[in-house]
Amino acid sequence: MQYRPARFAKVCERDGAEVAGLLLDCLVVTAAGEQIGRVDQLIVDVITRQPRYAIVKRRNCATVAIPWHALYLDVLNGRLVFYTWPQESQEVRMFNKGF
Question: Which domains does the chain have, with CATH numbers?
């Protein structure tokens, strides 16, 4: 059996990644401004070195993986915004309330 290295890897501040240092503990909110949680880890594609997921720790200590392409950096407010279609936004609100 041939060994295949992992395609994705966690990046954290101790790895010396400057971007990880900037984004770790960054607030993540919905498009409506509702808090989802804070970035706990970043997952990058080992081959392309592109970020793929932000692992977000919620207030109840649960973690959620959000695809990187669904986030944008709101520099003015220093946070990541998770944009979704209206139906998905409703589902996130229900998830935030614990339904």
Answer: 8-96 (2.30.30.240)
Residues 6+ apart with CB under 8 A from 24: 12, 13, 39, 40, 41, 42
pTM score of the predicted model: 0.69
Which pLDDT tens digits describe the chain residue by residue (99 residues)? 676 767 777 765 555 556 666 788 899 999 888 999 999 988 888 788 788 899 999 888 888 899 999 999 898 998 999 987 555 555 555 555 554
Instruction: Pull the structure tokens for residue 8.
Output: 């994705």
d(CA 61, CA 46): 27
Count Cβ atoms below 10 Å from residue 27 Cβ, excluding itself: 16
φ, ψ (nearest 5 deg) of residue 54? -110, 125
